[in-house]
Amino acid sequence: MAKSEKNKQNFKAPYRLLISGFLLLVVLIAVVFYFYDEAGIALSDTSNDDVEYVNIEEDTERIVNGIHVRTGFIVSDGMQQVINNCTNCHSAKLVTQNRMSKEGWTATIRWMQKTQNLWDLGENEGVIVDYLAKNYGPIKKGRREGLKDIEWYPLK
Ligand code: HEC
């Protein structure tokens, strides 16, 4: 009797150790998984919800501070017609770096039509010239104009 009891205990001791060791391992793994998750590290799924994928198609038409980012054009009526007709052969910069009156822009268009194969702009020409003269018109003179209609009075 005494012998078999002792045998049982001899058997139990390492068995208990095994079980408690196993439980400890499970808890440890649970803790590690929990903190990994907290840190935002995906264990099996590598996709990350925080990443914003930029739609390139949309991004090229981005407008920042009234400027169409891809071309550099000022956003205003007629911009789309200008993009469609004036950026095919040369960069938009060649347009935006110039400043001309309506007559000047029309003359430039005529010159390109005569010598550079620019097509007939049709009814878009008015819209385009208006856009260009309004947004890329001659720069105003730096000096203010002379005073007019002043009622001078003698100093006493
Ligand atoms: C069919 C091709 C073509 C199209 C479309 C075109 N251009 Fe041009 N443009 C040219 C060429 C070629 C030049 C000369 C480029 C150079 O000198 O390097 C030029 C030059 C210019 C210049 C510079 C002129 C100068 O005196 O230096 C301006 C400004 C200009 N284009 C504006 C426009 C505008 C505004 C439109 C839209 C209405 C337009 N272009 C559409 C071909 C084109």
UniProtKB/TrEMBL annotation:
Keywords for the protein's UniProt record, in alphabetical order: Membrane, Transmembrane, Transmembrane helix
InterPro entries: Cyt_c-like_dom_sf (IPR036909)
Source superkingdom: Bacteria
Transmembrane segments: 15-36
Protein name as it appears in the record: Monoheme cytochrome C
Native organism: Sediminicola luteus
